[in-house]
Amino acid sequence: MDFRFTPEEEAFQKEVREFLDKEVTKEVIHEHKSGESLGPHSRALLRKMGEADLLASAWPKEYGGRGLSPVTRFILSEEMSYHAAPYPLTFVEVAGPGIRHYGTEEQKKEFLGRIANGELEFATAYTEPNAGSDVAALKVRAVDSGDKFIINGQKVFNSHAHCADYMWLAVRTDLTVSKHKGISLFILDMKTPGITIRPMYTFAGVRTNEVFFDDVEIPKSCLVGELNHGWDYMMGALNYERGGTVGDLQAGFDELLKYVAEAKREGKLYCDEDWLSEELAQLATELRIGGWLIYRLAYMQDTEKPVTYEASLGKLYASEIRLHLYNVAIQSIGLHGQLRDWSKYVPMDTSMLTEFLDSPRWCIVAGTSEIQRNIMATRGLKLPTK
Ligand SMILES: Cc1cc2nc3c(=O)[nH]c(=O)nc-3n(C[C@H](O)[C@H](O)[C@H](O)COP(=O)(O)OP(=O)(O)OC[C@H]3O[C@@H](n4cnc5c(N)ncnc54)[C@H](O)[C@@H]3O)c2cc1C
């Protein structure tokens, strides 16, 4: 097996790296790490990336992409997350591929070019108060009313809803069929009257939202694909979302490694502790494997090989590395590890405590680790479903 990038992919990696080294300013990083999602600096960076033709590298040229190999999509996400840039998960990874695969010709014309230009942000709205892991139980209702649907109900944990232009929204359109079969997907303009957004914060300070729909009118032209086929589109898009990256974990590891190899406590280097060098070697191994799992998924998705459990495997493994990495980081730097970003005594650019507190989030978003294990057990190992 040849694990090397092609010369074209290497050139793309170099181009993205050089761009991000220059353009990811302290303001962008601060905004990104503030937990408030996309602000003006992040938006400006994404537009610049769009102008430089970097965002939709793997999309065909007719959709505003660059027509490069599928792997460049993952090179992009790895580099962006390594540089702490606002990785455009919700619009390049979820709604983007979703519209490309399932949208009407009009939707492709209307959205794909603007997504590739870095002009648009989408929020993904699947989860509801009683429909999380069992997301097919969702109840937000869209009722047919002539040339439009009328939407009522509530979503929860709706990240980016407060700064998004559009919502990639799953709703119930048929109550008479089994729960997986009565779901449809819509693209909702966030300026539509009747939408109320309330903030919710995780304990690491990351913003997500509750969103309420009160007689929200949506034209029928905003339906994605076929009515009542939303479940298939959601599952397809989730495989893209779960693809993820270990880029930011590699950055956290590199920062920790540099610090413990140079800094001393009571005259002794931190890394002189045997337990720590063993943990660091183990983490380096996990990061290498995590990256390969995700590249394999990229290859499968974009050569149209069926993805069954591979996205879950990649997501689960990356979530476990995150827990491990920041647990080791907190332990290795002692009491300094308990300082938040705003303390002048934080020993590294990144507060390891903030990252540590934020780690469990990644075991929940886009399906919990338990659900990823269930998928691997049933679809990967073919164990019977209970
Ligand atoms: C910070 C954050 C951001 C999010 N952003 C978004 C977003 O933008 N859009 C969106 O749609 N959703 C979003 N989510 C929602 C996320 O996908 C759900 O929280 C997740 O799927 C779990 O659903 P739940 O919270 O209802 O927990 P539940 O489904 O109630 O699960 C509770 C616990 O039970 C376990 N459990 C449930 N069912 C099973 C089972 N069958 N087998 C084994 N264990 C099980 C779970 O693993 C979990 O530990 C976000 C969540 C968070 C925390």
Please give the structural blueprint.
Blueprint: H1 7-23, H2 26-33, H3 40-51, H4 71-82, H5 89-102, H6 105-116, E1 122-125, E2 141-145, E3 148-155, E4 166-172, E5 183-189, E6 195-201, E7 207-219, E8 223-224, H7 230-243, H8 247-262, E9 264-265, E10 268-269, H9 274-302, H10 310-332, H11 352-358, H12 369-380
Parallel strand pairs: 1-4
Antiparallel strand pairs: 2-3, 3-7, 4-5, 5-8, 6-7, 9-10
Helix pairs in contact: 1-4, 4-8, 5-6, 5-7, 7-10, 8-9, 8-10, 9-10, 10-11, 10-12
Q: What's the CATH class of the largest domain, please? A: Mainly Alpha
Overall, the morphology is globular
Order of helices and strands: HHHHHHEEEEEEEEHHEEHHHH
Tally of individual domains: 3
Keyword list:
single chain; 386 residues; alpha+beta; Butyryl-Coa Dehydrogenase, subunit A, domain 1; Butyryl-CoA Dehydrogenase, subunit A, domain 2; Butyryl-CoA Dehydrogenase, subunit A, domain 3; 4-stranded mixed sheet; 4-stranded antiparallel sheet; 12 helices; globular
Question: Please, could you describe this protein's structure?
Answer:
With 386 residues, the chain is of the alpha+beta class. It folds into three domains: 7-87, Butyryl-Coa Dehydrogenase, subunit A, domain 1, CATH 1.10.540.10; 124-229, Butyryl-CoA Dehydrogenase, subunit A, domain 2, CATH 2.40.110.10; 246-380, Up-down Bundle (Butyryl-CoA Dehydrogenase, subunit A, domain 3). 46% of the residues lie in helices and 15% in strands. The protein is built from twelve helices and ten strands. Strands 1-4-5-8 form a four-stranded mixed beta sheet. Strand 6 and strand 7 form a beta hairpin. Helix 7 (230-243) packs parallel to helix 10 (310-332) and helix 10 packs antiparallel against helix 12 (369-380). The model has no long low-confidence stretch (mean pLDDT 92). The protein binds flavin-adenine dinucleotide.
